[in-house]
Amino acid sequence: MSAAVLPPPPAVRPRKASARLRRNLRCMTGDGFSFSVMVGCGETYIQAFTLALGKGELIGALIATVPMLLGGLMQLISPRGAVALRSYRRWVVLCATLQSLSFFALAFGAFQGSLSTVALFAAVSLYWGAGLATGPAWNTWVEDLVPGRIRANYFACRTRLAQAGVLIGLIGAGIALQSGRAGGFEMKVFGGMFLTATAARFISSRCLAAQNEPSRGRVRELVGKRGESSLKMTDSNRRLLAYLMVMQGAVYLSGPFFAAYMLKHLAMSYMDFVILIASAYVARILVLPGLGRMANRFGADKVLWLGAIGITPLPAMWLVSNDFWFLLGLQVAGGAVWAAQELAMMLLFFESIPRASRTRTLAHFNLANAAAMATGTAIGAIGLRYFGEAPGTYLLLFASSSVIRILAVMILGSVPQKLHKVLFRSGFWTGRFAPPIYPGRGEL
Fold this sequence. Notes:
By secondary structure, this protein is an all-alpha fold. The protein has 2 domains: 20-221, Growth Hormone, Chain: A (Up-down Bundle), CATH 1.20.1250; 232-444, Up-down Bundle (Growth Hormone, Chain: A). Helices cover 75% and strands 0% of the residues. Helix 4 runs antiparallel to helix 16 (358-387). It is globular. The termini are far apart.
């Protein structure tokens, strides 16, 4: 007679679940850190690489947004891709791997010392398309992996490490480029940076692949029905969306041209360039916890107004002085107010979107955002082409950007505050969690 099989003790299953959770969190942290290193030593320097190739200031500006618009169109397949693969994880890992290959193409061009304009735009478009396509699916997938009771504390720790990863990549690459320029091997340094970015994103993709997926097989159900919208387009919502789009267009009327202005017309060294970018980023890190507490105490609508008013005069202030210390102070102030603006946008467009329609809604928002950026850049590029690539033209673009930002603030003033208070009511922000905001995406 065989012995009766006893059921496992109750503690076994919780131990397995706890071990799985710890593994998922370790892998998710590794993904965030590796991805951030890629951003710091790769994405941040794409414009500088374009200028170093001798493509000209106009191409240097367009490379910041045209590929992003093309990427925004490409990432519209994200919901269908996840459904076709029946897995958020498979889709995200595939896109992350493709994104790493985009930097391999840039590294090849850097070591060769030349890269055609078409190949450059194709590689950067692949970078943005694959990168944007991961976001909607990852935002839906991650909710299954991190329990609500630890979500705020965990993402606080993960974000600190991600911020450290960006700074490590940013500063390390800047020091290497400074040495490369002095030694006459600048393009070889760019090649090494992009290979590092390739490796970092590939490691990130392996960390993503190592996480489990509780919702596997139910993706079709979770993506939502075609045409479903998470935010009803009331008149107030339209005005709020109009504010965001006009503001983004105004920002990118000037934003993509600052790198060329600093590196070409102000003849800054790579180290000065890195210090200015890093100072804005560090300022964001320092003020985000305080902004979170402010949102909890006074309402996130106040944070939105602080950011909107604060970022309005920033580009026009570059007309005041070219002194490095003045610009450094301006960047620090800019980083602080941009943290407020981006925090408010995150709370509005990400935390208020129901999970069932999150993947589809975020894909469409990414496209609208990229379109606004590309429109602003196109207007700036036309101005640069018409008036010539002279310092005065850049200053005209900076001043015009501030004027249009005033218009955006006026549109914001027409949005009922009651709407802000409803849409910004979220328990996700505790003052300890800082969203992963990276440099080079609008601190000016």
